[in-house]
Specification:
The longest helix is centred in the C-terminal third of the chain and has 24 residues, at 224-247. The chain contains 14 helices and 11 strands. Strands 3-2-1-4-5-11 form a 6-stranded mixed beta sheet, sandwiched between helices. 44% of the residues lie in helices and 21% in strands. It has 324 residues and is an alpha/beta fold. A hairpin with a 2-residue loop joins strand 2 and strand 3.
């Protein structure tokens, strides 16, 4: 997927709580926000609606000669499955607004490219949910990313839920006292009513995930319960990384690069430090380093990913150009 001087490249980073869009055109770029892409609904139609809105409202800028050039779409979407990708359907849907090429993938792929570029290793993308991707001589291997109901161990939702649970256990007398009890009451209201209020809230996943910040704050203030929650989360994230390294073909003592994307690890010193210690202590030869770039960088790299790279098999493409 190559861009000419008069082309518009539309990059989408689609998550559970919102979609970020970057439009690259001749002479500049523009960023905007869009609704989340819900994987419990047809994904193609949601991506198409976002792209169509961009192009029909003129956000896809004209080329240097004043004409609108062809548009190309690259998207990394949380929870995207191969069956849901349907790149040919997306291309057909958007052909009428000038889209000539599309590339779709799970956001773990774009997270990996953002954090590790083309190096072998593993990347964990930690936000509301979490997914870890390992890439090596054995190919690409995804670990977790099973959503808040069944997985996402170590994610903001997982941490937030653990914090609320600890608060309720303290309220019952089943667990040790903790500052999280007062924090939960301040955030969600009276504890006897909490479970009903949260269940009735359509934004309950985001609200529970947001409570992870209170867990981190309590940890920083010395609350032992909050500290243990973060330590357990770091252990879960490290386990996913070590599993991904092993399943992608890394051999003992072989060098590899581990990194992360998302604000959760970046924001919490304790969580990040425990994660680094856990991975380094169990995987000699692995370097754990901050990400090279941000998620949009990974989406941009997706557009021109070499077909020989192990991640290329994870990208779903369609093009009107026989030589994309």
């Amino acid at each position: 997927m190559t861009t000419g001087d008069n082309a518009t490249l539309i990059l989408l980073d689609g998550g559970q709580t919102g979609t970020r869009v970057r439009i690259e055109f001749a002479g500049g770029s523009a960023d905007r926000e869009a609704p989340p892409i819900r994987t419990d609904r047809p994904v193609v139609e949601q991506i198409a609606a976002i792209v169509r809105d961009i192009l029909e409202t003129g956000a896809g800028r004209p080329g240097p000669d004043g004409s609108a050039g062809p548009s190309m779409v690259a998207a990394g979407v949380s929870g995207l499955t191969p069956d849901a990708s349907r790149p040919a359907d997306l291309l057909e849907t958007l052909a009428g607004v000038g889209v000539v090429s599309v590339a779709l993938t799970h956001d773990s792929v774009t997270a990996y490219l953002a954090a590790n570029r083309h190096e072998f290793g593993a990347v964990t993308a930690v936000g509301t949910g979490v997914v870890t991707l390992g890439v090596g001589r054995g190919g690409a291997c995804r670990v977790d990313g099973w959503g808040h109901l069944f997985g996402d161990a170590g994610s903001a939702y997982w941490i937030g839920r653990s914090g609320v649970s600890a608060a309720l256990r303290a309220f019952d007398g089943r667990g040790p006292d903790t500052a999280l009890r007062a924090a939960a009451e301040k955030e969600f209201g009276p504890l006897p009513e909490l479970y009903m209020a949260v269940q009735a809230d359509p934004d309950r996943v985001a609200r529970v995930a947001g409570f992870a910040r209170e867990v981190d704050a309590a940890s920083e203030a010395g609350d032992a319960v909050a500290q243990q929650i973060l330590d357990d989360a770091a252990g879960e994230l490290a386990l996913s990384v070590l599993t991904a390294l092993d399943r992608s073909g890394r051999e003992a003592d072989e060098k590899a690069r581990v990194s992360w994307v998302g604000g959760v690890l970046s924001a919490s010193n304790r969580l990040r430090n425990r994660f680094v210690d856990n991975v380094s202590g169990h995987a000699p030869g692995v370097s754990v380093e901050p990400p090279h770039g941000r998620p949009f960088d990974g989406v941009r790299l997706l557009a021109d990913l070499d077909v020989t790279h192990p991640l290329a098999a994870e990208v779903h493409r369609a093009s009107a150009d026989p030589h994309p």
